[in-house]
Amino acid sequence: MLLLSKEDIRQVFTMRDAIEANKRAFQLLVEGKCNAPLRTNIQAPKQDGCFLFMPAYVEEMDTASLKIVNVFPHNIDQGLPALPAQVMLIDGKTGVVKSLMDGISVTQIRTGAASGAAFDILAKKECKIGALIGTGGQGAAQLEAMLEARQLEEVRVCGLHYDRTEAFVKQMQKEMERYDARILPVKSSDEAVEDADLIITATPAEKPVFDGTRVKKGATISCIGSYQHHMQEMPPVILTRASKIYFDSEEAVLSEAGDILIPLEDGTITKDNFTGDLGNVIKGEVTGRENDEEIIVFKSVGVATQDLVAAREIYDKAVKAGIGTKWNS
């Protein structure tokens, strides 16, 4: 079994690699080629947390995977990750676990890459300003994804605590230097979304985190934070203003995401407002952006197919490069 750390993964797997892997995963999903049951969610109320188990199997790839990603928000007080995770890559021919890899890295880059894939496919070609709301564990990968997808001049970042936002931006300006974009901390989401072409929300908020009336025509919005029924970071008005609404998986979104479930339940939108899954657009079965005036929304909750395809590519690249630690039980 090959053990792959965060550093190992970073050496062999880029954001562009992850975006292309996501596109393949989303296509496999709509083609029905991945057996990926909805994730098992076991609540841990004593810790305000939960355990999430995400299995997947793609027969044509002879590959299975299992991601364990647990949400324990109070870990931050102990200097521990709030989303501890591991990914197991399993040989589909033998059932043998081939690799155990850092699940935090896999989750961050594949979730960031979901936004990147959506922007690659759905955003206007000419985008200059980005907005990122949320500076937690997903912040860096989401920022990198929008910078990778479009050549932005400026990204405005808004977090819950301005001092943390400033620290995050300072670090990101160094790490994302190659993209040649200004990364700026702002004190309000109104400042962030004003005139933004690309908007990402990556928060566990239970109330909308930006004013949907301030979003300009032509913007593309990716909301990735809401993964339970009571969570809602997207203002319902943006769904009524949007020309098109896409998902990573409509089935998965409708099983858990308050961003869509709450407006559905109160009648703000109906399923007739849905356009389709991103994989349908990739396959040419559903229309993508048709003009530069459309507001487009992409809602993602994450599906195990993303983890499987990413993990397989990471493993193959690591083996080729001779990277990782071999462990024999």
Structural account:
There is one protein chain. The protein is α/β, with parallel strands linked by helices and 329 residues long. The chain has 2 domains: 2-106 and 305-326, ornithine cyclodeaminase, domain 1, CATH 3.30.1780.10; 123-302, NAD(P)-binding Rossmann-like Domain (Rossmann fold). Helices cover 36% and strands 23% of the residues. The chain contains 11 helices and 16 strands. It has helices spanning 6-12, 15-30, 103-122, 139-149, 162-175, 189-193, 236-241, 250-256, 258-265, 278-282, 304-321, and strands spanning 2-4, 34-35, 40-44, 49-58, 63-71, 85-91, 97-102, 129-133, 154-158, 182-185, 198-201, 220-223, 244-247, 276-277, 296-299, 325-326. Strands 1, 2, 3, 4, 5, 6, 7 and 16 form an 8-stranded mixed beta sheet that branches. Strands 10-9-8-11-12-15-13-14 form an 8-stranded parallel beta sheet. Helix 2 (15-30) packs across helix 3 and helix 3 packs parallel to helix 4 (139-149). It is globular, with a radius of gyration of 19 Å. The protein starts with a strand and ends with a strand.
